[in-house]
Structures are given as structure tokens and as C-alpha cells.
Design brief:
- The protein is built from 6 helices and no strands.
- Helices cover about 65% and strands about 0% of the residues.
- The radius of gyration is 12 Å and the shape is globular.
- It has about 80 residues and is an all-alpha fold.
- Helix 3 packs across helix 4 (about 50-60).
Amino acid sequence: MRRRSAESYEAAAKLLKVMGYDINQISSGELIGLKSRIENMSKLADELGIGTMTLEDIVKELESREEIQEMKCQSRYLEKMFLI
């Protein structure tokens, strides 16, 4: 698994907010199909202040519940978000 930056975690949190998701929906699998809800990946990446490839990586990982479990263990930022 690739090492992630704090900025990527912040961008993931912003993405969830922009897309109308709650943090609790991550572990329930409700983010499967997130990519199909994004109309313009480039525009959204600009809005979040990240590159398109970074956004694509974030979306892919958010759609994967297994990846989220690893992210929860590796990031204090996400630990605070998940209240664990």
C-alpha cells in the first residue's frame, strides 16, 4: 500500500462532504459506486485542491472497505474522524 499524505486524508474528508456522504457511511460500504456519481473528475479535483490522479486514488480507496480499515489504523486524522 502506498504511503498517504495528510493532505490526501483532508481531501478525502472534503470529498465526502461535497458528495453528501457522512463519515459513518464509509465502513458500511455505501461508497461503492462513488466514482459513477462524479460528473467531472478534473473539476472536482480542482475544487478539492488536488490532482486528478490523486482524486482517482482517493475514490478507489473510499470504495474499498478493506483499504479504509488500513487507513483507519495508519492515520491519526482518520482516527479522530472515526472517533476510534
